[in-house]
Amino acid sequence: MAIILDGNKLSQQIRSELKLELENLIGHQKPPKLSVILVGDDAASSVYVRNKEKACNDVGILTETFRMPSDSNQKEILAQVNTLNNDLNVDGILVQLPLPSHVDEIEVINTIDPSKDVDGIHPFNLGQLVQGSPIFVPCTPLGIQQILLRNDIETRGKRVVICGRSNIVGKPVASLLSQRGVGADATVTICHSRTDNLPNITSNADILIAAIGQANFIDGNMVKPGSTVIDVGINRMDDPTKKRGYRLVGDVDYESVIEKVYAITPVPGGVGPMTITMLLNNTLKSWMKSNHLPGNVA
Ligand SMILES: NC(=O)c1ccc[n+]([C@@H]2O[C@H](COP(=O)([O-])OP(=O)(O)OC[C@H]3O[C@@H](n4cnc5c(N)ncnc54)[C@H](OP(=O)(O)O)[C@@H]3O)[C@@H](O)[C@H]2O)c1
What we know:
Elements: E1 3-4, H1 7-25, E2 33-39, H2 43-59, E3 62-68, H3 74-85, E4 92-95, H4 105-111, H5 123-131, H6 139-150, E5 159-163, H7 170-177, E6 187-191, H8 198-202, E7 207-210, E8 228-231, E9 235-238, E10 246-249, H9 254-257, E11 263-264, H10 271-290
Parallel strand pairs: 1-11, 2-3, 2-4, 5-6, 5-7, 7-8, 8-11
Antiparallel strand pairs: 9-10
The chain binds NADP nicotinamide-adenine-dinucleotide phosphate (NAP).
NADP nicotinamide-adenine-dinucleotide phosphate binds at residues 140, 163-166, 168-170, 191-195, 198, 211-214, 232-235, 271-272, 275.
């Protein structure tokens, strides 16, 4: 039976560490603060933002959310980002994605001050990551690396296959794990919807990372016996037995894979909570940097 890589438990542990770090460092400075911009009323985004607010409160990070109507125009959203860029009390800015389709998402991301880009998605921070001198690493990739590191799953010299090439997961996690150093040094392959013979590639992976967005796509025939599987996917599946009418499943067919692999992240309760925890990590890091405080964060 596989080891279940419990993201909730690990998150609690890291959040306690972050809380302690903050309590030890805080003197007369203002506390760290994360500002979130939420445009529109997408139900899933609202839940994510509420979870982020709660997580901030738990570790002592101040948080505020600017809720903007779904018909907000580009100029209004950029103005809100710029207000936060110029606010000395704000250490981290998070624009909850996706933005409504009429908004130029790239322009919004590029407007965030890179020194407050705790989501790590501004081209400056992505460039730093690719260069091998990361400052803010995108939260999901950083969370995945922490899961591997803190469960003693070796990446050095291992074959890592990533399904998905998004800017927030696939591409940055490939950069992160192929860097030199601890928790990296992997040989990385990125796959996507145009990849030929995907099962042939995934079944050779020592570590398989699924970030596709298709429920139960990766089955037992696509994984290597004894490998580690990281399931990033969050998909809603109709389930009349649930009060809300659906349940969340990953990109990996958990039941068909679990007997075959060494370790696997569950959905929910795997990568999801770690993504939020790394947002806290990055916000604390930004606060430490602006206050010239030494610290021990990822
Ligand atoms: N747990 C978390 O904290 C967290 C964070 C972020 C995202 N997610 C979830 O992770 C999933 C992926 O999200 P994302 O934003 O990274 O990706 P995305 O932007 O939705 O893109 C999906 C990627 O999967 C690839 N893909 C689609 N079908 C495929 C197939 N049949 N075979 C191989 N590759 C295929 C696409 O290839 P092309 O580029 O060729 O189209 C694309 O690169 C979603 O379920 C999302 O909700 C979870």
